[in-house]
Amino acid sequence: MLHMTKEKIHIENLEVSIGKEHILKNINCTIPEKKITVILGPSGCGKTTLLKSMNRLTDLYSDVKINGKIELNGKNIYNGISDINDLRRKMGLLSQRPAPLPMNIFNNVAYGLKISGRRKKRYLRLRVEHYLKQANLWDEVKDRLYSPANSLSIGQQQRLCLARGLAVDPELILADEPTSSLDPISSQAIENRLMELKNHYTIIVVTHALRQARRIADYIIFLYLGEIIEQCEASEFFNNPKNEITKAYLRGSFN
Amino acid sequence: MKNSKYRKNEEKIFIMLMQASCGIILLIMGLILLTILRKGIPAFSWEILTSVPKGGFYFGGEGGILNAIIGSIYLAMGATFIALIISLPTALFLNVHLRKYRKLQNAIRLFIDILWGIPSVVYGSFAFTIMIYFGLRASLIAGILTVAVFIAPIMIRSMDETLKTVPLILYEAATSLGSTKFEISYKVFFKQCIPGMVTAILLSFGRAIGDAASVLFTTGFTDNIPKSLTQPAATLPLSIFFQLTSPIPEVRERAYAAALILTIIILLISITGRGISLRYMNNQIK
Lengths: 255, 286
What we know:
The complex is a heterodimer of chains A (255) and B (286). Chain A is an alpha/beta fold and 255 residues long. Chain A has 10 helices and 10 strands. A 6-stranded mixed β-sheet of chain A has the order 6-7-8-3-9-10, with helices on both faces. In chain A, strands 2-1-4-5 form a 4-stranded antiparallel β-sheet, covered by helices on one side. In chain A, strand 4 and strand 5 (75-76) form a beta hairpin. The two termini of chain A are 30 Å apart. The relative contact order of chain A is 0.18. Chain B has 286 residues and is mostly helical. Chain B folds into 2 domains: 4-43; 48-281, MetI-like fold (Orthogonal Bundle), CATH 1.10.3720. Chain B is built from 12 helices and no strands. Chain B is globular and about 65 Å long. The two termini of chain B are 38 Å apart. In chain B, 36% of the residues are buried. At the A-B interface, helix 2, strand 6, helix 3 and helix 6 of A face helix 7 and helix 8 of B.
């Protein structure tokens, strides 16, 4: 099945260390296009670091050393990228805790459009409505588009962040435990959205929740202590795990 | 092992200590305000507010301190404006561009703190030396520049302290939307910190309008209202000083009227500033 889909991201011999800590060791993996890939593993195994090295958010931290190759559409993002912001715009980020910008709901979604030079009022209105609908938030906020984003509930804020991320027209959605701070109903709303969006976007979700992975994953990358233990189709991972560590993890022996 | 009674007493004592400290501060402020009001109101008159000193003003003659009021407002506003132009980019650069260079950040903060600690009279005499070198006379513009340099460290560090509180996830979110550092600075960090920025500007304005030592050599003193930047100007703190050191009782009393006016100006500016920052408070992300 996997060999039939195009690969979106290809990672080769990736080594990441922060200060003296060796976070990721010899990572080799492939992320298929227009699927949900779940990066699974216990806390502190380097899942988030792996995700953040894909859109080079790791550039923001001091003492980060990265070796190896990450290719997006066949081009190495750590070598010879002309515009880092272009690269980041191709990947929408959903973080653990929603981080709306300090402005109103409308401007949060319009922000990405505005910084890329789109300023026509009518156009912005249409796009904002479109993306808020895609994030399943439009009906709840259409009457208060100009109130501050932080007046929304946490679950709504996370959907707002999804809409904001979609508005820059990305190719990928990177989600870093996107439901960990949400209530069950909001979590489900986000999961359902991701399931629908995978027809148009390549989605990478970091999680430590096995049940969530079971629900949404097409493809699984299992990380343990900074190394990839297993990567395969979700069905194969859950029904027919090969590695002893995977088996133990699936049994719930550690978390 | 601490038992619950011990912990309860500990709690009580610390609450009392904190209340006492708070009380002392309020008491000092109350005493200052009371003195200014009690001595200032009787000496206050329409004439003081609306006219410049006439002949023999400092010996109890007629006139007012309009020259100093206008001079101080020009000086403080000019200096605050110039300091803002220097401080905002510095504070944003420090927090956005240099975010991952901790050592450099700390070194810059240390230097700015040292500048903050230098007494204003040193800034005044430093500026005076430069003025002599270039053959310049005491003037409003010289005072504005001197005071701007002297309040800039205060403004930078106050802005810096509020910018430090911007959560990392907000920085990451803005970055991953493809924002440039410039956009992150002015569209996200600045907006998030508007209330703190207003406080920083007010604090600096207060220092600018209240300082006597830095303007003594640089702005000079005059009985006229300055008509251009190159003319000398009077300032309220110096006006208070000259009147307070007079041997004549009526002149000394008028000093309190001047102090009252200075206090009211600062109060008005603070209230407007708070109003502005309250308007932007509700967009802040916690």
